[in-house]
Design brief:
Layout: H1 3-19, H2 23-38, H3 45-58, H4 63-81, H5 88-101, H6 111-119, H7 124-147, H8 149-162
Helix pairs in contact: 2-4, 2-5, 3-4, 6-7
């Protein structure tokens, strides 16, 4: 990572909500990635490379936003690993709560972008657990999109009118 980005990261970490466009959306995506990564007993750096590559695709080659997605994901995974007030169940709960508040975020759950992370796993139990999490996320996405269809349409209409 570039030195200038590392400086920005430290500065923006404290004020992320004010300086990063659509911070909530980026944070939600980071939680999704962190959930899948943290559910593997052996986490490796390749997982974060997948997050960065996916971020580059999502944010149309905006390297800073892709880096922030990767670093936010790393921070969340580290909190889970260190048992620092966050675990898999809490992460799931946060994702569910956010979808209740902002149901359009369900469209940001991209199962295909998460599958390469599972491909890095070696342990059968971890793979099974991660596949169950993907299945849960897919079901959560479908239910949210179905049950909150009118609210999502209204929210998207309001967003379009702002821009």
């Amino acid at each position: 990572m570039r030195l200038s980005f590392k400086f920005k990261h430290h500065f923006f970490s404290a004020f992320r909500e004010f300086f990063i466009y659509n911070h909530g959306s980026l944070d939600f995506r980071a939680k999704i990635f962190a959930l899948v990564i943290a559910s593997n007993n052996e986490i490796n750096d390749e997982s974060y490379e997948i997050v960065k590559k996916t971020g580059m695709d999502i944010y149309k080659n905006d390297e800073d936003r892709a880096d922030f997605l990767m670093l936010s994901t790393k921070e969340l995974v580290k909190k889970v690993q260190d048992n620092n007030g966050l675990n898999i169940d809490t992460l799931i709960s946060h994702i569910q709560k956010e979808l209740k508040i902002i149901p359009r975020y369900a469209k940001k759950i991209d199962i295909e972008s998460l599958k390469p992370i599972i491909a890095l796993s070696r342990d059968r139990d971890s793979i099974s657990y991660q596949e169950n999490i993907l299945e849960f996320l897919q079901t959560l996405k479908e239910e949210t999109l179905h049950n909150k269809k009118s609210q999502i349409a209204k929210d998207e209409e309001n967003l379009e009118s702002k821009y």
